[in-house]
Design goal:
- It is a single chain.
- By secondary structure, the chain is α+β, with helices and mostly antiparallel strands.
- It has 10 helices and 11 strands.
- The strands form 2 sheets. Strands 1, 2, 3, 4, 5, 6 and 8 form a 7-stranded mixed beta sheet that branches.
- Helix 1 runs parallel beside helix 2, helix 1 packs across helix 3 and helix 5 crosses helix 8.
- The radius of gyration is 19 Å and the shape is globular.
- 51% of the residues are buried.
- The structure holds cytidine-5'-monophosphate.
């Protein structure tokens, strides 16, 4: 068996309704995720021990990637090997294009892709439902990362259902050099909204998706973590205004931030907005489309 390579898509939250903190410390969520065509790649090669190496695009802070012992890919490998009572032996290379600590669930995507790649490398043929069970143990966003497409997340985000989405949505993605730790943003949400109740419903967002019209979707985008993210990183507010003045239909902080995403009419419009942001804002601006599929092993 030679190298098995799988693609891992970033996610954005089209709707992120945050409710009260639960007894287990997580916040009750009602969210709509969309996977977009900004990909990490996970390559697993047979090895005599367990190794994880990372390469990263220049705009990704490679020093923020946890070392092999704390890397979520190692946890994914250990869980999968443990399920089948095999030794976790592989050389894993993670090529990162998704910013670290960016609110795009890059680590979760890597974990989901690692499960799929290692399952094939070790010829385990784990049923999908069991992979989902491992994903839940790895983090709130990992089950959606395994599902891909567009999905509705409840509980603390780990209970996911596919959402029909036949649209082709175009986004400009503006990463930030320094990540924001998700727990810090949730803690700041608690300070700002001490009596959060039931999370805001996603019905309006799901109805907007069904129209296929980017203007309808733009009007329905919602993120309860945007205000705390703005408070922690005031410069994000002006970045969102800049993207909208460059013509984006709407700018939004992605998840807990600090990555900002801008919804556009179509591919040509996304290219124009990205050029405007690069020129006027002197920022890295990437274009991506959604929904993107969940991780699958590259053929050949
Ligand atoms: O599940 P995951 O490990 O990705 O969550 C990271 C952190 O984000 C949690 O430890 C918690 O502080 C915060 N979180 C939360 N409520 C959620 C999801 C995450 O408070 N629904």
């Amino acid at each position: 068996m030679s190298t098995v390579r799988a693609r891992a898509a970033a996610k954005i939250n089209l709707h992120l309704g945050v409710g009260a903190t639960r007894d287990d410390g997580y916040h009750q969520l009602c969210t709509v995720y969309q996977a977009i065509s900004l990909y990490d790649h996970v390559a697993a090669t047979p090895g005599d021990s367990w190794r994880v190496a990372t390469r990263a695009e220049p705009y990704v802070d490679r020093s923020a990637v946890p070392g092999v012992g704390d890397n979520i890919v190692t946890k994914a490998g250990a869980l999968l090997a443990g399920l089948h009572d095999v030794e976790p032996r592989a050389d894993v290379l993670v090529e990162k294009a998704i910013p670290v600590g960016g609110g795009l669930a890059g680590g979760s995507a890597d974990a989901a892709a690692a499960l799929v790649a290692l399952d094939q490398l070790w010829d385990l043929q784990t049923p999908r439902a069991e992979l989902m069970g491992l994903a839940v143990q790895l983090g709130s966003d990992v089950p959606f990362a395994l599902l891909g497409g567009t999905g509705h997340g409840t509980s603390h985000g780990e209970v996911v259902e596919p959402v029909p989405d036949s649209g082709e949505w175009w986004w400009v993605v503006v990463p930030q050099r320094d990540g924001l730790p998700t727990p810090a943003v949730y803690r700041h949400f608690d300070d700002m909204v001490p009596h959060a109740g039931t999370p805001a419903s996603a019905d309006g967002l799901i109805a907007a998706l069904a129209t296929g019209d980017p203007r309808e979707l733009a009007a329905a985008l919602h993120n309860d973590l945007q205000r705390p993210a703005f408070d922690l990183r005031p410069e994000l507010r002006s970045l969102i205004s800049l993207g909208e003045s460059e013509g984006a239909l709407r700018g939004l902080v992605s998840g807990s931030g600090p990555t900002c995403v801008f919804l556009c009419e179509d591919e040509a419009h996304a290219d124009t907005v990205a050029d405007g942001l690069r020129y006027t804002g002197q920022v890295t601006a990437l274009t991506a489309t959604g929904p993107a599929p969940g991780p699958a092993v590259d053929p050949g």
